[in-house]
């Protein structure tokens, strides 16, 4: 019995050792999987040929076994805050903003120039003395304007002194302020300035004579109407329309044929203000309730005014109610 047991023990041991060896062989050295063969994609031209060849065939159904993988959504941590999606707003068309107004360009300032012996023109830099003179002139002009706005008769004497300053800018402001305070009492000073050598003073005096409105200034205005300065003649044409005297009309007749168009327009305006008549146009009747106005040349217009003057100048009188010259014939 003992020998049989011993034999069975050795047989069982050998079988266990063999099973262990087989397990270690297969599990200790695993077999490597064979790499998958990747078929190269056909060139673009061949793919296009295949697509064109199979265009008539119905499209093949793709297998539905392979399902697309769902995207992995990362869960936020405790510290992170999940931002709620903002609701989509309906887009509205943006309002069309109006074009900005055109910016006004600053006026060009012409610097004083000096001509050298070679004919070159160079910009004359103002000297410190000239700068100081201009500063003083601005201060005096502002002071004269302030005196005129005050209306104090005591300031007239000081303004008379400022009228005779050398600076034209001071002259103009002082003369305007003096007329504003004294009115007709300043007429002698204004007439004197209208005959001065300063061009700016003559121009300002021509306008101030119209503001005063005294017929005593007509001889001076007639003299200024023959000036070569266009701006001065324009001022005379406007001032004559403010003097309520029939002796203003012959001077305006001459300005109707002036070489400057604006001077002619100002002369016509003054004649209309004084007489209420317009000789520049002739009304022509074209039919029943149909007419037109034909404008005539300045020479013919002046001839019509002179003819009207010869017939009616003895009967012209100023009418205060209608503020114009009217023909008043005695019965």
Protein model, in words:
The longest helix is centred in the first third of the chain and has 27 residues, at 2-28. The chain is mainly alpha-helical and 331 residues long. It is built from twelve helices and six strands. It is elongated. Residues 44-68 and 70-83 have low confidence and may be disordered. The strands form three sheets. It has a two-stranded antiparallel sheet with strand order 1-2. A two-stranded antiparallel ribbon has the order 3-4. Among the domains are: 130-212, Leucine-rich Repeat Variant, CATH 1.25.10.10; 244-331, no CATH class. Helix 5 runs parallel beside helix 7, helix 6 packs antiparallel against helix 7 and helix 7 (199-212) packs parallel to helix 9. Strand 3 and strand 4 form a beta hairpin.
């Amino acid at each position: 019995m003992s020998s049989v047991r011993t034999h069975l023990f050795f047989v069982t041991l050998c079988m266990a050792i063999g099973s262990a060896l087989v397990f270690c062989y297969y599990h200790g050295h695993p077999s490597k999987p064979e790499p998958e063969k990747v078929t190269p994609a056909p060139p673009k031209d061949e793919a296009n040929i295949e697509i064109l060849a199979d265009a008539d065939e119905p499209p093949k159904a793709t297998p539905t076994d392979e399902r697309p993988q769902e995207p992995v959504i990362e869960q936020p941590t405790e510290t992170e805050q999940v931002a709620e999606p903002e609701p989509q707003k309906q887009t509205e068309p943006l309002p069309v903003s109006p074009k900005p107004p055109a910016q006004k360009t600053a006026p060009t300032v012409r610097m004083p120039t000096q001509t050298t012996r070679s004919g070159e023109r160079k910009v004359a830099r103002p000297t410190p003395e000239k700068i100081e003179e201009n500063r003083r002139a601005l201060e005096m002009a502002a002071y004269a304007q302030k005196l005129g706005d005050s209306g104090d008769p005591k300031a007239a004497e000081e303004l008379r002194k400022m009228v005779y300053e050398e600076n034209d800018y001071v002259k103009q402001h002082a003369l305007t302020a003096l007329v504003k305070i004294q009115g007709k009492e300043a007429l002698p000073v204004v007439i004197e300035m209208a005959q001065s050598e300063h061009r700016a003073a003559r121009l300002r005096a021509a306008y101030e004579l119209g503001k005063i409105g005294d017929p005593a200034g007509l001889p001076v205005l007639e003299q200024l109407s023959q000036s070569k300065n266009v701006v001065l003649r324009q001022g005379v044409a406007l001032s004559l329309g403010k003097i309520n005297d029939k002796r203003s009309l012959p001077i305006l007749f001459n300005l109707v044929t002036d070489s400057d168009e604006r001077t002619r327009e100002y002369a016509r305006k003054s004649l209309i203000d004084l007489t209420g008549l317009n000789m520049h146009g002739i009304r022509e009747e074209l039919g029943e309730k149909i007419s037109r106005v034909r404008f005539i040349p300045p020479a013919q217009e002046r001839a019509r005014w002179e003819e009207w003057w010869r017939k009616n100048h003895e009967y012209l009188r100023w009418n205060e109610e209608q503020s114009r010259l009217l023909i008043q014939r005695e019965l």
